[in-house]
Amino acid sequence: MSPSECPDQRVAVVIPARDEAARIAATVRACRAIPRVDLVVVVDDGSADSTQDHARAAGAVTVRHSVTRGKASALETGAGVVAMRDYKDGPTRLLLFIDADLGDSAASCADLVPPVIDGVADMSIAAPPKQAGAGGRGRVVRAARAAIAAATGWAPVAPLSGQRCLTRGAYEAAAPLADGWGVEVGLSIDVLVAGMTVIEVPCDITHRVTGNDRAGKFHRAAQYRDVLWAVAARRLRGRRVPRKQLDETRIREQSPFHAYRSWQRPTEPAEAG
To answer: What is the CA radius of gyration of the chain?
Structure first.
């Protein structure tokens, strides 16, 4: 279905934020400019600054956690707010998860919406360019990519990207979300295990750089821990595509920025060829 065939489809942006007063207003304004976005929800996850005030002034609906609960909880709160505000006589909004520190570059996430509206994928994921000044040696990225590939056969370019557009069905397939910084890996595994399709889309977005100082190393250590927890929890629950259902041809022939689905749902006819 082309966008012109679903003119009523709207998109809600959900932004988890903590101590982002310096950037949140620019991020919100950029998100409001994305076509089809008619709702921006900022979940202030226990900020000690004026994040909520700046977000509201920029035009967002704001919700505040009195204490910090983590990224996954903030996303779930935001998705709940969107569900309460969905139209009774229209299609359920798509969810567009955006990180709070993107600033003006958040507008580039507009490219994530068409693949989902067109039915190419149930979830699209932003693949950002390599950012100058970023620290780390890619250990967390490699671990996340290997874990997703082991569970689903898919080897993503940007396994930790937080910028994602997804249907309500894809979100529900992953709920409850993995804790902390493991949320992205959990989303990818859960959506693919549910037999849905994902695609990565190059997006010209820029984050606040995490360097090689003590704070940067602590952040990456926490990220690595949460990724391992998310993967371990899914292994314990047996949440992976059974080997007999994996399409080995798809795995061998997958290429970056093309839609990927790890297995054919039994209710669907087999693909030709």
So the answer is: 18
